[in-house]
């Protein structure tokens, strides 16, 4: 096959056959198709998109470029949740044990943070001893016995996606819905799950800045799931302000533990419960959403979910005492209050600005190679809609190194708006697709 | 500068600055921008095109990536002609000496044939001893003294274009008018010419299959010329059937020599005279087109143009006796008639099919690395519109090797249509742009 002909076919808006797309992905993974041909192909996809059939074949080829876990012999519904990423998004840490407490199996493979967004693996690694690198055998055993495993992506999973993502990053072909959707799905479907719930975040702190694009992404992932016989449900959720009160790894673990004992902030609790309800729904384990959500809140309050989390911490080498004693988690040596410069209402908290401020403190990475400081971050005392008095603390900055502190102050000042109008509070769950 | 940002700017339809485009071309030529980034950029250009300002800067950057000849101290108007390529297109061999006979200077840098189209250099090399590789100093001396030089592209001219063309060839970004136009213009403007006449061919044997695309290409080259202060004129000409009677290198040289003594076929004579008239026009050396064309035909008949051709053959190491004695040119060892299978009119001769048949005989190259046989080719006795009787010869096949002869017959049979309707003869010159 002459691959240049596949590029021109796509360029001209013709549909490629599944066989052609599989050959292209395979040859690219094997190094037979050079980066420059794939780069031209990806840019053609940017302009011409992909049909449902093409997307299924393309995703399938990436999925089968590596190891696909088979958990079919594990009893129970295997469901995972994926978030497109946000600021203060520690949902996975609460959701995974809560879903297991509710009877699901959660084989969760997560990623690291980059730029203004955080990553589940970095948060888990704040817990002393917690090891996200587990063999596939051990991962399977954990899912079978505890009901969940929390690991990082291995290089055996979807290597084609890894290679393609690196190329997209340097060829301006990241912001392309079929490529985003197929990338996520190829990794998630390798987890051996039966179904998937997606949290597509929209707003200043999210990858998707407007709701129409978020809906399109969600719909595309549902389509891909359908071609692979894996039901996918999508919640579109607000990411205009950070989720919960904390941004920063160790601080987010503390907030997650508070939420796991039923004492978390309402936005974080609500979104987690909604997502787990959706996981039960897609697995066929939910009859009535209202009573399901009540039961989930009860599993937080009565310690069942916390108990699952303590178990998995212990099984993955961490110290489960952190669940009760937060002082065992990394703590920053300095704290300083960031105070209101005026009286009024907190009208907006730009999530992206807050994410970048946290990154500058050391909580996040500017490039993949950067190391992070698990202890540092931000704790908000006032969220959107709160009334403040001039001089009152808006948030506490936890830091170890003061070299970027002036920058961080400036970023936060720019990110937070104080005004005279009490802002409308948009709903947290903006839409639900299936 | 982060080049990925330039790719996304182009992808999003924004205009790049001249400085950004120059930096991109320079960095690509120097190997700082990898092929995969340029491939993505080229595909984005395919979809988003370029503005006139962008095209000027892009072409200028390719032009200045290498040596730009300066012939400003040579007296007289320096004009060249470029054809987008066709089948049986031997115009340059007649046009160059005719233009010089009419008082112009013609520094002509030509290319080789590929696929179904022929190349001027291959035709010239049919002449025993003719050397198309001349130093820049010698080329300049020839233009100064004889009035013309006929050489091949040196690697010093527009190296950025050479590198880009090779990349476009394997990334499905060849068929893109701004990229075609800038590629041609960057090479032609390196010749030290004051102005340029373009023969944009349209039809089955041409690169452009429809006249609207041909006009768009012509207009784009005029625009680029304007940004560089180099007037460009364009003739759009018919390439639905081969030009003249012969296809094949040595055979085309013979036909050119016949035309240079005023005995060529009318289509070839007409197009050559029209193009030289346009060269005079763009140089400001023509007052009345009608009388200019009459004078040009006279310069063919009276031997003035032939005399110039004999001179340049001698100066570039060839044997000028070929002008009178065609037996000094390579001759194929076998000839066979290709006869009409029916009586009627020749309704059409598909130029591309004929070009491929000639290539299969050895007259052309399938890939750049192939060698060619100068002696072989086709001599037509019947062109479009001729009436034929069954069994009468349509053309003579000149061949050395009979291994592809069956294929050649089949191709020719498919390329030539005989029917009962006398076809309309479209004009040879379809349009004129300036």
SSE run of chain A: HHHHEHEHHEHHEHEEHHHHEEHEEEHEE
CATH top level label of the largest domain in chain A: Alpha Beta
CATH homologous superfamily label of the largest domain in chain A: Nucleoside phosphorylase/phosphoribosyltransferase catalytic domain
Count of alpha and pi helical runs of chain A: 16
Q: List the uncertain runs of chain A.
A: none
Q: Quickly count the domains of chain A.
A: 3
Side by side, the strands of the main sheet of chain A go: 1-4-5-13
* Structural class by SSE content of chain A: alpha/beta
Describe the structure.
The structure is a homodimer of 434-residue chains. Chain A has 16 helices and 13 strands. Chain A is of the alpha/beta class and 434 residues long. The first copy, chain A, folds into three domains: 3-48, Transferase, Pyrimidine Nucleoside Phosphorylase, Chain C (Transferase, Pyrimidine Nucleoside Phosphorylase, Chain A, domain 3, Up-down Bundle); 79-178 and 186-323, Nucleoside phosphorylase/phosphoribosyltransferase catalytic domain (Pyrimidine Nucleoside Phosphorylase, Chain A, domain 2); 330-419, Alpha-Beta Complex (Aldehyde Oxidoreductase, domain 3). Chain A has helices spanning 3-11, 18-29, 35-48, 52-63, 91-101, 120-124, 136-145, 159-170, 177-188, 211-227, 249-260, 266-282, 289-301, 304-315, 351-361, 405-415, and strands at 79-83, 106-110, 148-152, 195-202, 232-238, 246-247, 334-339, 344-349, 377-380, 387-388, 393-399, 416-419, 429-433. In chain A, α10 (211-227) links the parallel β4 and β5 (232-238). In chain A, the strands form four sheets. Chain A has a four-stranded mixed beta sheet, sandwiched between helices. Chain A has a four-stranded antiparallel beta sheet with strand order 6-9-11-7, with helices on both faces. In chain A, strands 10-8-12 form a three-stranded antiparallel beta sheet. In chain A, α5 (91-101) packs parallel to α11 (249-260) and α15 (351-361) packs antiparallel against α16. The model of chain A has no long low-confidence stretch (mean pLDDT 94).
């Amino acid at each position: 096959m002459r691959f240049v002909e596949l590029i021109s076919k796509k360029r001209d808006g013709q549909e490629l056959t599944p066989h052609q797309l599989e050959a292209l992905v395979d040859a690219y993974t094997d190094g037979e198709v050079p980066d420059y041909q794939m780069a031209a192909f990806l840019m053609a996809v940017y302009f011409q998109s992909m049909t449902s059939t093409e997307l299924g074949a393309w995703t399938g080829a990436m999925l089968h470029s590596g190891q696909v876990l088979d958990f079919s012999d594990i009893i129970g519904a295997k469901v995972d949740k994926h978030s497109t990423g946000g600021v203060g998004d520690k949902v996975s840490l609460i959701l995974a044990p809560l879903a297991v407490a509710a009877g699901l199996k959660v084989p969760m493979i997560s990623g690291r943070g980059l730029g203004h967004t955080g990553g589940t693996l970095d948060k888990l690694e704040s817990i002393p001893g917690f090891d996200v690198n587990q063999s596939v055998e051990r991962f399977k055993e954990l899912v079978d016995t505890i009901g969940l495993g929390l690991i990082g992506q291995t290089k055996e999973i979807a290597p084609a996606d890894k290679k393609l993502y690196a190329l997209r990053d340097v060829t301006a072909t990241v912001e392309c819905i079929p490529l985003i959707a197929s990338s996520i799905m190829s990794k998630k479907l390798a987890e051996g799950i039966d179904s998937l719930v997606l949290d597509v975040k929209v707003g200043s702190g999210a990858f998707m800045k407007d709701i129409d694009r978020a809906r399109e992404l969600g719909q595309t992932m549902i389509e891909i799931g359908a071609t692979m016989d894996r039901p996918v449900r999508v919640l579109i959720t607000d990411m205009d302000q950070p989720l919960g009160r904390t941004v920063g790894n160790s601080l987010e673990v503390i907030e997650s533990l508070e939420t796991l004992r039923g004492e978390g902030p309402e936005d974080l609790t609500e979104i987690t419960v909604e997502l787990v309800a959706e996981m039960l729904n897609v697995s066929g384990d939910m009859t009535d959403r209202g009573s399901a959500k009540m039961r989930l809140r009860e599993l937080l309050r009565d310690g069942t979910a916390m108990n699952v989390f303590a178990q998995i911490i212990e099984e993955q080498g961490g110290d489960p005492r952190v669940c009760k004693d937060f002082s065992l988690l990394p703590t920053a040596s300095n704290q300083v209050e960031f105070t209101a410069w005026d009286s009024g209402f907190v009208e907006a908290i730009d999530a992206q600005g807050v994410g970048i401020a946290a990154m500058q403190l050391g909580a996040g990475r500017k490039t993949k190679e950067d190391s992070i400081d698990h202890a540092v971050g931000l704790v908000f005392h006032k969220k959107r809609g709160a009334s403040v008095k001039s001089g009152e603390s808006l948030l506490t900055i936890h830091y170890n190194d003061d070299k970027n502190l002036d920058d961080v102050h400036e970023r936060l000042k720019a990110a937070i708006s104080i005004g005279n109008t009490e802002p409308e509070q948009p709903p947290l769950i903006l839409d639900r697709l299936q």
